[in-house]
Amino acid sequence: MAKIKHHNFLNTVHEVFTDAKQAGVLHLYAGGSSFSGRTIEVEGRELYHFGTTGYLGLEQDPRLKKAAMDAIAKYGTQFPLSKSYISNPLYEELEASIGKMYGYPIIITKNSTLGHLGVIPSAVDDDDVIILDHQVHWSVQNAAKMLKTRSIPIELIRHNNLEMLEDKIKKYRHSIRHIWYMADGIYSMYGDYAPVKDLMKLSEKYPQLHFYFDDVHGMSWVGRNGTGYVLDQLGELPENVLLFGTLSKTFGASGAVLACSNAKMYDKIKTFGGPLTFSAQLEPASVAAAIASAGIHLSDEIYDLQGELRERIDYFNACLLDTELPLIDQNTSPVFYIGTGMPKTGYNFVNRLMQEGFYVNLGIFPAVPVKNTGVRITISRHNQKDEIKALVEAMAYHFPKALEETGTDAQRVFHAFKLEYKKEQTQKSFEGLTMKVVESIDQVDKEVWNSYMGGQGVYDWDGLKFLETVFQGNIQKEHNWTFQYVVISDDHDIPVLMTFMALGLWKDDMLADAKVSAAIEEERKLAPYKLSSMVLSMGCLFTEGDHLYWNAEHPLVDKATNFFLEFMEKQELALGAKMTVLRDFPKESLWNNELYGQGFLRIQMPNSCTVDLNGSESIETYVEQLSARNRRHFRTDIQPFLDLVDCRVSSNLSALQLAQVRTLFGEVQARNLGLNTFSFPEGLFERMNENPLWEFIVLCPKNGPNRIVGVMFCYNNGGQVYVPAFVGMDYDGLETFSTYRQLLYRTIDRAIALKIPKIDFGMTASFEKRKLGAVVHEKYAYLHTRDNFILELLGVMEGQ
């Protein structure tokens, strides 16, 4: 699997959000001259509000409003001084009230994001380690990642996976002072809980285990004095727990609060906590509103409010029981998530609900995996029972219509969320189209395949026959690939879509930063398959190019596209693949919008290079056609080295030569961690040596004719394209012989001699290839995963 690199990640998020914005479900503006909390105006329509995080409705309480207005009248709109110097006159009362609520020392912060940035670097020492639940809020992850600069190890575990957590604890228990596990109390998307009691049992077994809980979504609506879910589970706050709550959201005001029972730790954080020292303090209106809310929390009224909310939550759960909606986690929190699977289904469903008069939130990447898009519904005291019932009825009515309108079905949604689907699924019809899927190129007509898919890379009919012989029947599992050939034709047997796919074991860090791969490779010395996954890919790791024939002009092309994507999804599930990858698309692709809507993310691949040789009668005339700068490069960096070696082209190497080139290829692969893949089968080179379509361009020093310093492994695709698929080099002679540049030059020379009009120069090293006249093409892949864990894990590892 490929990691989405940081700039790629931001571009991807931008594209996903832009797609959702254009669908009218994101970056909206509320209208109206007032706001009650029960309804919200969107584009001139009054909608019932099921998207708030003010679960108790305190943001509309008259007491909080009056306190805020009085504070502005008395103290102004802000108190523009750092709190380290002096706090505004209301702060002391607020701290006393919040401290009384918790019964422990507290620290007020501007908001939870700045609070995490202030607390985490202060609490975590250089000889500690951080373990993150991979669904812990972004603000916690972001603050923790700052500690990479202090070389503090950061690990990631799958959501609520205590077995994985214990494995990480065992890894560090004898070398680290404190092990910090960071998690949410209530998770903001699915509304599920941290297993607090089980975690505390784990800390009894491992005393160095400490906890950092962000419980902002558990605040106020549960617990003694509304201090939240985590403290309600704990009963008392142990010294090994730092607990974050909020003064906004359900609390109704603004700001955040840290509770800490460890006096030494408290003093350390309070004295200097980055943003706690340098950020502006809460405005007087916010402080006053928070004091008023604290008064409610310290009275018995808070339990009445919690009871009223619980009644609504229970009623919503009861209504949902009578439906077949895919509720992702059934619990008693005010946060509910109805899965839609594909983003375009989510857009459709949200828009339908808004047309019916209900406002809900869309859950979308990166908050959830793209294929786990859904509708997040929050219940508050503002919601009345008849409105709750009406929302459930509207969802039950519109959910199947949204599925049908976006070309999907309930079974696909349930599978996307790993939920059991109990109804019998009717087979979907793609009228007018027939799909043929076979597992060997022998079952595909050679002439038909080559007429649509030939003339590219190593995947004409003969090339695929070669690959099947190499990547089947091997001992090691990474050397065995399952091939599938897909042809979708109309009723006249005319292909609309044609491609081939391969299921194989990929390294998860294939496109990660080379430093990350280097670190993982050290661990693979003991665990060879660490961070590797079965991937279903269009094309395979041996091929590069346009792996898809797609007749964009055919009247059934849209139906064929959906037919193929649904087939891929079913194959991923049936074959146990963790990721599906559609490869080698240009930047401007007609598939782009459809693939985003179907739940695929786009990432940039290494650039691809081609050389057009039409009109070049010799290598000399080709060089003369290069730009002046590139001709200088040839005269300076290539020509002086040509007489230092003998260049031979051979289609059949001796056993000794074959052993040498295998070693040289291994040297290149070991150093090319920017495109980190498993090795190829031992028999690959012997198969090449036996196959008349493969040949070897070999460089040997004139003073050592039996020593090979460089080799290019080349495939002749029917005389239409020459494919230097792989390179091998002796790095001790790399500069002496200008080996890589020579091999590129000699490859062009050989293709001209064979009168082949085009070279597919493959990926990587595009700078060097460009200097010899190659055209560089941006290439993109579309992928979807079952979850974001691997992507996030590699992101955490980068920079450590």
UniProtKB/TrEMBL annotation:
One Gene Ontology molecular-function label: transferase activity
InterPro entries: Acyl_CoA_acyltransferase (IPR016181), Aminotransferase_I/II_large (IPR004839), AON_synthase_class-II (IPR050087), PyrdxlP-dep_Trfase (IPR015424), PyrdxlP-dep_Trfase_major (IPR015421), PyrdxlP-dep_Trfase_small (IPR015422)
Organism: Flagellimonas zhangzhouensis
Keyword Zinc: no
Lineage of origin: Bacteria, Pseudomonadati, Bacteroidota, Flavobacteriia, Flavobacteriales
Assigned keywords, A-Z: Transferase
Annotated protein name in UniProt: 7-keto-8-aminopelargonate synthetase
Required cofactor names: pyridoxal 5'-phosphate
Entry-linked PANTHER family: CLASS II AMINOTRANSFERASE/8-AMINO-7-OXONONANOATE SYNTHASE (PTHR13693), LD36009P (PTHR13693:SF3)
Keyword Transport: no
Pfam entry (one): Aminotran_1_2
Residue ranges of every copy of the Aminotransferase class I/classII large domain listed in the record: 54-393
